Model the fold of this input.
Amino acid sequence: MAVYEVEQKFPLQGTPEEFVTALEKINAVAEGTVVQEDIYFSHPVRDFRETEEAFRIRSVGDKNIITYKGPLLDKQTKTRQEIELLFESGDDNANQMWAMLRALGFRDVRRVKKTRRIFSATYGSRKFKITLDNVDQLGEFVEVETLANQSDWEAARDTLLNLAAKLNLHDSERRSYLKMLVENDMLETGS
Done:
């Protein structure tokens, strides 16, 4: 069965401490802080910028995950099919996967590094992951996400929108961190 990630991202308004206080009011539980390093790839024959897909290797400490994100399904959230596979841990294995993808014609587009404070909460009988992200070269953001299947992603989206409103999150950012960084790079280089 296909798994869909239902997500919204917001620039952090106020301080992280103020937002953590809002999370405490909904009984969110702090799960820890991690550093995530992602390498995003372009496909050899189709343009992920046009299809709004994403393909990456994510390293979190010694853990490695390869992820495919399908095209966006709606205009309000970043709802899409997501397929994630763990592969052997360690830098050497991440580098071998990177080399294999390059040998197959994929090209790395850019690295994205963030420090992520992770919280979990149940809202409207759904489990949510809420993160405070400090993204290198971009700043602070909040992501709210839940998982759904093909038959209930719209209900998940509606619950997510209600939760975001309850947390006073507004002005959602539909661009990925990758897209924002690439746009910033283009502004800096004038291309």
